[in-house]
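Task: sequence in, structure out. Protein: Flavin containing amine oxidase/oxidoreductase.
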Amino acid sequence: MPKVLIIGAGLSGLSTAYGLRNSNFDVKILEARSRLGGRIFTIEKENSQLEMGATWFGPQHTSLIQLIKELKIPFKTQDNGAEALYDFRPKGNIERFQIPSQGAATYKFNHGTSHLIETLAEASKAKIHFDEVVASISIDEHIKVSTSTAVFEADYLVLSIPPQLISEGIEFRPKLSETFNQLLQDTHTWMSDSIKFSIAYEDAFWKSQQFIGTLMSPHQIIQEMYDHSDNERDQNALVGFLNSNYSLLTWEERKEKVMGLLESYYPDEKRPLKAYADLNWRNELYTTPKNAKSLAPHQNNGNPKLRDSLFDNRLFFSASETAQQTPGYMDGAVHRGREVADFLLDLSD
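Result:
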């Protein structure tokens, strides 16, 4: 039985394993973290679901939606209200604008994005080894992947982690070509520039008839914010992105500034806090290497050379950044993950 080893138990790696679930391949996944999901991460805190990673998708994300329907995972439309608050301080004022009616809906998962990951992992039937950080890969007659604790052998290897992480963190024998290695270094990592935050309160004091939490600001600590409430869970929450200029602060310091900013918008409202969390993805070593280049968003995402298989069709790259369709999104991770699975199935015929 030929062995397939997948590096990374995020959405792409699990999609490849899922695509091979009924094949004659022996599939294993190595994951550096102690959890599933990679850049999908839902924190459960005080009966609230706080999204720290990828959250939204749309009808154009056809591969993701097909997978969701196969797995029977419920999702719903994101409601952004009729008005948005724009905070131009200190170079302007706080203003309200009408939100244009959306041409296409935006969706999110009923039970958190991690519900997709947990369901997919179970359906894939793959054996997952956690806390396995890959140090080196040797490719000759057999593929040998060395971690700090073990050596794993395989016939086929799928790297489902960000290209920059591959270039900076793994030693190859024989080495990858200088040209290809440079491409890996110059490929922007999805989420690497983001600080995602979510905050839950006892009540949704921010909601009115027209405004339900949509906020944009170029200068304040909160750059984007959306309502993340759920009546079924009795959850009153907000979610969004923080200004990267605050990345050097601790999460406690950012929490204080976020709550202070919300206080300035609603000085007369009581704000009993339930839970707060944020995550600076620049500091996630298994997403963004310490010395990663600062690149333009989506730079080289979807580059066709990232989809080249190496070493006589034994080494594949399948992170979202490598996808032809919607690279740098959840849909790209699913599309490329399934594409690699289909390629392996064709090889086995």
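DSSP finds seven helices and 20 strands in the chain.
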